[in-house]
Structure formats: structure tokens, C-alpha cells
Design a protein that fits this description.
The complex is a heterotrimer of chains A (about 325), B (about 270) and C (about 270). By secondary structure, chain A is α/β, with parallel strands linked by helices. Chain A folds into 2 domains: about 240 residues, Rossmann fold (3-Layer(aba) Sandwich); about 80 residues, Alpha-Beta Plaits (2-Layer Sandwich), CATH 3.30.70. In chain A, strands 5-6-7-3-8-9 form a 6-stranded mixed sheet, with helices on both faces. Chain A is globular and about 75 Å long. Chain B is an all-alpha fold and about 270 residues long. Chain B is about 75% helix and about 0% strand. Chain B is built from 12 helices and no strands. Chain C is mostly helical and about 270 residues long. In chain C, about 70% of the residues lie in helices and about 0% in strands. Chain C is built from 11 helices and no strands. Classes of the chains: A alpha/beta (about 325), B mainly alpha (about 270), C mainly alpha (about 270). Chains in contact: A-C, B-C.
């Protein structure tokens, strides 16, 4: 039974048509012409409890509009949503109890006071029972090491510390589902890792369903077992990272260490990307030529001392999908030998 | 950075005219603000007409100021405030606040003159607004127009009053070189100027015991002097005296301005902004 | 219902706890604000005093009575500023996307806005109370049980009128990006038009101040009742002055209804 389910979800934004110039401004006052733009065209998806899903897509693809409908901030134009059995915008307050939200760029902590005070107010807002509140706070302090700055006014915290505080704040009421919007933006490597660790632990310990929207694909690689890719308001990929790699990561790189000098690298379906001393990077299309075929071809021409294959970075794959579209890529990798 | 000597340049007014033009156009883009400020001005013209009418209804005209004079006084004061309420050197404070003033000192321009030309563009735009406001106000109240010589003296005195206000604000903005935050002080000065400058109530209505003192303050030189000239409360034989007092305030504030600017500028240059 | 009230009570208590702690954190600012507010209201009162030195009365109102009129408005206004100030921040929250947060918390949206922690100092409230006590003694208002029962209700009703008008302006920001100028002008007109007895205005203005923007219920009508003056603006019964709590409630209900329409617009209902 999925915890989050949408069917043909669609959101159209309507705005009054504007005309240029002063005359145009006056004209806009009296005419009622609208421009409709669909931010989310057609999104159908389902998530099981305890899943950790990366929801990614380029700017303007409809990511945040989808999240806003799931959280009950926006009312869909058409389509269905069920989140933990509720229609979010109809049962906004009940839905709010089930979810936790972290906006990476906007804090919900009170600037002038120590973390403790913000937590107390949130406890009251979510009506968290005292013992539950205390237990959660103790556990989060442990994982996030909140104790070192619990008494410091939030305005004096570093971005990483503040983010840790925001995570604890979003989790105090034991939400079943957590929406994380760019949770690691602007953080340094250490802070990023601490946050990722926390997400993984919470997901594992409590079975919390996590939806992560981010531009940092390292977050997704580290945490998510599933990716939903959205572009132009439609889901263009939904599945595991491995499947994404297999279907879209059509190019691999063969790194060859030469034993003695060798000049010619023009192999079929292969491109010389980099040469540094005796280290040669060859990018090949594995639908056309297998690694084995290429290695054989190279050894026929040059003497080599070492060889390795580099998988494409997730980021490269995603970038290619954004740039080139997705349809024509999805062919089974079946090179003819 | 100022120690690097720039090649000798002939002073040109051109860039400053350009700064003023840009500021003029910038102000013109705030359409909603323009309409609302004219609208609120008209409502207040109407309000003051009703207030003065009620006060004069059961009472004799005090201080030789007739009801018509009082209404004229308030209306002209409100129209003057379109220009006088503008803090035309606010840019100094803003730039000190976000730290961008340091880059202005690196440009081959006279920095205070740059701020003045920017403010002048803003003020010119708002002066243009006086005309439609006057036309609309004339629909609500009847405004007396004095004889040409009095009108001439009024405009001269208005210009002097404007300069007093300008320099006073300049000095306040320069305080931001040291304290950064001056908004509260500025608001307080504005309220005091409105009251002791005679914008709300003509200063001749103030208790006699205080009048000598209040007329001697710089605030009176901003609103009260031109307004009393306009309604004829200050007669032509007293023009040299009241205009002289305005000029004195301009001179005093100008001297203070020069010193405070130099001290402030040195602070920016020494600290590197 | 009882459970929900308990939650609201708990939230409200925590909210005030944070406000007090924040105010203590910035206690040095308190004196600055005190001086600031004092000068603001003092200039307004001094102007009235000067005028009434020169003119014996304004439509039969002398200075102590005008001061009572002013202090009633100031009291209601300062209560509004103490309890409902954050409504004024809605336009900014909407502009910066911060407003989304309201929908992901399990609490009434307006209640969440009102309980957004802020820096509140009781400067204006203290000044308003002091002026009110002074003006009451000075203008010779009889302090009887009518006074004791109705003044607190009237002040709360006046605060609700103020709050309702601010809420309507804030709600406009769901349609228009910038409402700052509107807000500023509404405030200016409010404090200038409440300063004088409305009987000095023309008929149209009196009607506007009674029915459209009912500022007259914040101070004019109650003041005429307690000062035993004939209500000569609209020739209504003096007991109209006691209707302020009711008018406040009606204003609030209407404003709240508009607010709900605004929230629906924000959520994009129907599109």
C-alpha cells in the first residue's frame, strides 16, 4: 500500500496578461485576458513507506510545484493525490501532522534565541507529548551533536549547525514523511556528510519516508535507492540509480596506462578525451563497442601496463538527459560483436 | 587608493547631469508610489480644510490670519512637502550601510557632488509632481495667489529653505559614517521639523513665550519662513531680516557639512571601506 | 474542541515566552523605542495643544477632551500593535516565499501569523495607559461602573477594528506584490482622521469613518458617550459609543472572510 500516490497530477498557473508600456498597464487594468502555464503537466507516482527517493530535475521542471501539492500548500488543477491516506489540501492540518519539511534556504528557527526555545514552540504547535518530545530531543542531540550549541542564539550559529537544528525541528513530531528541499545547499563537506548521515539513520531507525529534492547529486548517490526525474512537468525516469546508469549512461571511459609511447587512438565509436603523459582517457559508446573489444584493439596497437574502466558520474548522465532529452536514449544496450 | 594620483582632468559637469537624469528616470518608474503620494496629499488638503473651518467657525480670526489664509497656508505647506520631505542624500546612508561607498571613492568623480546630483534628479522629478497636485488641490480648496513680488520672495525663500533642509539631512546622513544606523534619528528629526518648522501649524500660533526661540531655530527656516511670506504675515520690510536668517543657517550648515564629510571620508579611506 | 483550545493556549504561552526573552535580549533598545514613541505622540499632542491655546474649542471640544479622544485611539492602537503586529509582515513573507510554511503546520493560518515571534516592547502601551489615565482625570470623565466595564471592551473592540483593516491590507498582497504604500497611507490617514471629533468633517467623510472604515468607533463615539457630549455628527444615540466591541467583531469577521478568500487564491484553488 503506497504512502504517497498521485495520478495524472496537473497544476496550471494563471496570470493576467500584461501589455508593455504605460498604455499597456492601463489596458491590463480593464481587460481580463489570462495566460495559462502548466508547471506540472502530468505526474503519476507511488512511493512505499520507508523509501528514500531523490526527486530531481532542472530548474523550472515542476519539482517544487509537485512538492507544494504533496504538502498541501497548493491545490492541484486536476488529478489525484493521497498522502498517508489523506488528500493534503482538503485535510491540510491532519496532513501537516504527518509530514516534516526542511527548506534548505529558509530556517524555521528563531533568530534571536537558542534552539531550545524554537523547539518548545514547535512542540506546542504540533502538540507533541512531553515524554515523546524529550526522547526525540535526546536522540537527535546524540546523532546531530546539538548539545555543543544548544544554548547559543541561532544568529550566531554556523550554517551547518543551523541546518542541524532545522533538521531536528522538522523531526520533533515524528513525521511519517519528510520533504527535504535542497538540504545541503551551501554546506561544507563535513557538514554535508553529517546531514546525510542523519537522514540515513532516521530513515533506517524509524522507517520515515524521505523525499529529497536537490541539485547536489552526491546527496542522491549517497542516500537514495530510487530516483524520480522530472522535466517539463512530466516524469521522465522513475527507478533505481543502477537502472539509470545502464539505460542512460551509454558512455564509459577506458583509462589506459602506456608502457611505451603510442600515438594513434582512433578506434571506432571511441573518442580521445584526455592524454597526460602515458595516461590516456578513451570514452566509448558501450552500445556499439564493448570494453573487451576496445581493450583488444588498443593492445593490438600499443603496449600497455595497466587498464581500468571508469563508470560515468551520475551528474554527467543527468546533465545529458537535461540537455539532449530522454526518449531516444532509452534503448537496451546490445552491442553487436 | 586615493593616494594614486589621477592624470589631471578638466572638471566636467557632464557626468553629474547624467547622474541626475538617471535618478529622475528611476523615480518615474515607481508609478504606484507616485499615485498614492498624490492621493494621500489631496486627502490631507481636504482634511486640513475641514479642520481649519471647524476651528474658525465659532472663533474670531487670531493673529490676523484669516480662515482663507490658514487653508492656503496648509495647502502650500503640503505641496512644499512633496519636495522638502525627500531626503536627497539618503544614498550616502544606504551606501554606507551596504559598504558600496568604498567603490565610489575609487571612481574619478567628486563623491559628494555625485550624491547631490543623484538627489537633485529625484527632487526635480518630485517638483514636477507639484503641478498636477496643485491643479487637483485647486479643485478641493481655493488657494490665494499673492502679488508677483511676494511670490518672487516666496520662491527665493523656498529655495533657501530647501537648502537648509538639504544640508541638515546631509549632516544626518554623514553621521552614518560613525553609527551606520540613523533611521530612528532621522524620523525623529522629521517629526520635529514638521512641528517646529511650522508645517502643521503656523508658528505664529505658538505661545508668545516660545516664539522668539522657535523662530531662531533652523527648522523655522525650512517651512515657516517661505510660508509666512506667502500668506503675507511677514511683510516686505522684514524680508532682509528673515531671508538673512535663512542664509545664515545655510552658511553654518555648509561649514559643518564640509567638516563632517572630510572626517567621514577620511574614515572610509583609512579603514578601506 | 477542548483539546484544540489547550493547544492554542500552549502555543500562545510559548509565543509570549519567546517574545519576552527576545525583548530581554535586546533590552538596550527598549529605551530607544520608548523615546521614539514618546516623541512621536508628543508632537501630535503638542500640535493639538497649541491650536487649542489659540482657538477656545474645536466644535465644542477643549484640549483635555481632545486628549481623551486621542488616548482612546492610542490605547486601542497600541493593543493592536502588541497583539497583532505581525499581520503587517505577511506581504513580505508572501514576496519571499516564506509564507508556504504556514500551510505545513497543523494550526490555523491566521493564528500562526499572530504567534510569529517578534521583538515587542510595551513602550507604546505604557505611554497610552499613562495618557489615558491623565486625560481621564483631566477631562473630568466620571469613573463609574459603566466606565470600568465598557472601557476594556471598547479598547479591545477598537483594537479589532485596527486589526481588521490591517488584515484586509495584508490580504491584498495575495494579489498585488507591493502593498507597502497602501499600508503606509492607511496608517497615516487613520492617525490623522482619528485625532479630531468627526463632527468637524463633511457629511461624506463622517459616513465613511462610521460605516466604511469605522475608525469613529475606536474613539469618537465612545468618547462622546463618556464625556456626556451630544453626538452631533450623525445625531445618533449616545449609546452607539458602547457598540464598539460589536463593530470590532463584525469588522474582524468580514476581514477574516476576505483573508480566507486570499488564502484560496494563494493556494491556487480552481486553477
Amino acid at each position: 500500500m503506497p504512502i504517497i500516490e498521485t495520478r495524472n497530477l496537473r497544476k496550471v498557473f494563471r496570470s493576467v496578461k500584461r501589455y508593455p508600456g504605460l498604455g499597456g498597464a492601463v489596458r491590463s487594468l480593464f481587460t481580463r485576458e489570462y495566460v495559462d502555464k502548466a508547471a506540472v503537466e502530468d505526474v503519476t507516482l507511488a512511493m512505499e513507506p520507508g523509501e528514500l527517493v531523490g526527486y530531481i530535475g532542472p530548474n523550472g521542471a515542476g519539482k517544487s510545484t509537485t512538492i507544494k501539492m504533496l504538502t498541501g500548500i497548493l491545490v492541484p488543477t486536476s488529478g489525484e493525490i493521497h498522502v498517508a491516506g489523506l488528500v493534503p489540501h482538503e485535510k491540510r492540518k491532519e496532513n501537516a501532522r504527518n509530514i516534516g519539511v526542511v527548506f534548505g534556504q529558509r530556517s524555521q528557527l528563531y533568530w534571536d534565541l537558542p534552539l531550545q526555545e524554537s523547539f518548545e514552540l514547535l512542540r506546542a504547535i504540533y502538540a507533541v507529548p512531553r515524554d515523546r518530545y524529550r526522547a526525540n530531543l535526546a536522540r537527535f542531540s546524540e546523532i546531530l551533536a546539538l548539545d555543543e550549541f544548544m544554548e547559543t542564539p541561532v544568529r550566531q550559529l554556523s550554517l551547518g549547525q543551523r541546518m542541524r537544528g532545522d533538521f531536528a525541528a522538522a523531526m520533533l513530531h515524528d513525521p511519517q514523511i519528510v520533504y527535504l528541499d535542497e538540504p545541503t545547499i551551501g554546506l561544507d563537506v563535513v557538514a554535508k556528510e553529517a546531514i546525510r548521515e542523519f537522514i540515513a539513520q532516521i530513515n533506517e531507525e524509524r522507517g520515515t519516508t524521505v523525499i529529497l529534492t536537490t541539485h547536489d547529486l552526491a546527496d542522491v548517490e549517497r542516500l537514495c535507492n530510487r530516483i524520480i526525474l522530472i522535466d517539463d512537468g512530466r516524469v521522465v525516469f522513475d527507478g533505481g540509480i543502477e537502472r539509470l546508469r545502464n539505460e542512460y549512461g551509454t558512455h564509459r571511459t577506458l583509462v589506459v596506462t602506456l608502457a611505451e609511447n603510442c600515438e594513434s587512438f582512433d578506434f571506432p565509436h571511441t573518442e580521445l578525451v584526455e592524454r597526460e603523459g602515458n595516461l590516456v582517457h578513451l570514452k566509448f559508446d558501450r552500445r556499439r563497442i564493448t570494453a573487451e573489444q576496445l581493450i583488444r584493439a588498443v593492445t593490438e596497437r600499443c603496449t600497455i601496463s595497466d587498464v581500468s574502466i571508469v563508470e560515468p558520474e551520475l551528474e554527467d548522465i543527468i546533465r545529458r538527459i537535461y540537455l539532449e532529452g530522454y526518449q531516444h536514449q532509452a534503448q537496451a544496450p546490445a552491442p553487436s560483436s | 587608493m586615493t593616494s594614486i594620483s589621477a592624470p589631471p582632468q578638466r572638471f566636467s559637469l557632464k557626468p553629474y547631469l547624467e547622474f541626475a537624469r538617471v535618478a529622475f528616470e528611476r523615480e518615474a518608474t515607481y508609478r504606484f508610489e507616485v499615485f498614492t503620494s498624490i492621493g494621500s496629499l489631496l486627502v490631507r488638503v481636504y482634511l486640513f480644510r475641514m479642520v481649519w473651518t471647524a476651528l474658525y467657525a465659532q472663533n474670531v480670526a487670531p493673529k490676523d490670519l484669516s480662515l482663507q489664509d490658514a487653508i492656503t497656508y496648509s495647502t502650500v505647506a503640503l505641496l512644499m512637502s512633496l519636495v522638502l520631505d525627500i531626503d536627497q542624500t539618503r544614498l550616502i546612508h544606504d551606501k554606507l550601510h551596504d559598504g558600496s561607498i568604498a567603490t565610489d571613492f575609487m571612481k574619478p568623480i567628486n563623491v559628494p557632488l555625485y550624491f547631490f546630483s543623484d538627489g537633485t534628479g529625484e527632487v526635480l522629478f518630485h517638483s514636477v509632481l507639484i503641478l498636477p497636485s496643485l491643479a487637483l488641490a485647486a479643485l478641493i480648496v481655493h488657494i490665494d495667489i499673492p502679488p508677483p513680488d511676494v511670490l518672487g520672495a516666496f520662491f527665493l525663500s523656498f529655495l533657501f529653505g530647501y537648502l537648509v533642509g538639504l544640508l541638515m539631512n546631509f549632516i544626518l546622513n554623514c553621521i552614518a559614517f560613525w553609527t551606520l544606523e540613523i533611521h530612528a534619528v532621522q524620523l525623529i528629526v522629521t517629526w520635529i521639523t514638521d512641528l517646529l518648522g511650522g508645517q502643521i501649524i503656523p508658528l505664529i500660533f505658538f505661545p508668545l513665550a516660545f516664539q522668539g526661540f522657535i523662530f531662531a531655530l533652523p527648522f523655522a527656516a525650512i517651512y515657516s519662513t517661505p510660508l509666512l511670506i506667502y500668506v503675507g504675515s511677514v511683510t516686505p520690510e522684514r524680508y532682509p531680516e528673515v531671508l538673512g536668517l535663512q542664509v545664515m543657517w545655510i552658511a553654518i550648515f555648509a561649514v559643518i557639512s564640509v567638516f563632517i564629510w572630510r572626517a567621514g571620508a577620511r574614515r572610509v579611506v583609512v579603514q578601506g571601506g | 474542541m477542548a483539546e484544540r483550545l489547550a493547544i492554542w493556549g500552549d502555543v500562545y504561552r510559548q509565543y509570549w515566552r519567546i517574545n519576552v526573552l527576545t525583548a530581554l535580549e535586546y533590552r538596550a533598545n527598549f529605551l530607544v523605542w520608548f523615546g521614539f514613541t514618546f516623541i512621536y505622540h508628543a508632537t501630535a499632542l503638542i500640535a493639538l495643544w497649541i491650536i487649542l491655546q489659540e482657538f477656545p474649542s474645536m466644535n465644542g471640544w477643549n484640549f483635555p477632551q481632545m486628549a481623551f479622544l486621542y488616548s482612546l485611539w492610542m490605547l486601542a492602537h497600541s493593543i493592536n500593535n502588541t497583539l497583532f503586529l505581525t499581520v503587517g509582515d505577511v506581504p513580505e513573507h508572501v514576496r519571499e516565499g516564506e509564507f508556504d510554511r504556514v500551510f505545513v503546520r497543523p494550526l490555523n493560518a491566521l493564528f500562526q501569523i499572530i504567534t510569529t515571534p517578534q521583538q515587542i516592547f510595551p513602550d507604546e502601551l505604557i505611554l497610552a495607559l499613562s495618557l489615558f489615565v491623565l486625560a481621564t482625570i483631566w477631562s473630568g470623565v466620571t469613573v463609574d461602573w459603566w466606565f470600568v466595564v465598557f472601557i476594556p471592551l471598547i479598547v479591545m473592540g477598537g483594537a479589532l477594528i485596527d486589526f481588521a483593516i490591517n488584515l484586509v491590507i495584508a490580504t491584498c498582497s495575495f494579489w498585488f506584490v507591493r502593498v507597502d504604500a497602501l499600508r503606509w497611507i492607511a496608517f497615516q490617514l487613520e492617525q490623522e482622521f482619528t485625532r479630531y471629533p468627526i463632527s468637524i468633517y463633511t457629511k461624506g467623510v463622517r459616513l465613511v469613518l462610521t460605516f466604511l472604515l469605522p475608525f469613529a468607533f475606536m474613539n469618537y463615539f465612545p468618547a462622546t458617550f463618556f464625556l456626556d457630549k451630544a453626538e452631533d455628527a450623525l445625531h445618533l444615540s449616545p449609546f452607539v459609543g458602547l457598540a464598539t466591541p460589536l463593530v470590532g467583531l463584525v469588522c474582524f469577521v468580514l476581514a477574516y472572510w476576505f483573508w480566507i478568500i486570499g488564502l484560496n487564491k494563494y493556494q491556487g484553488v480552481g486553477h
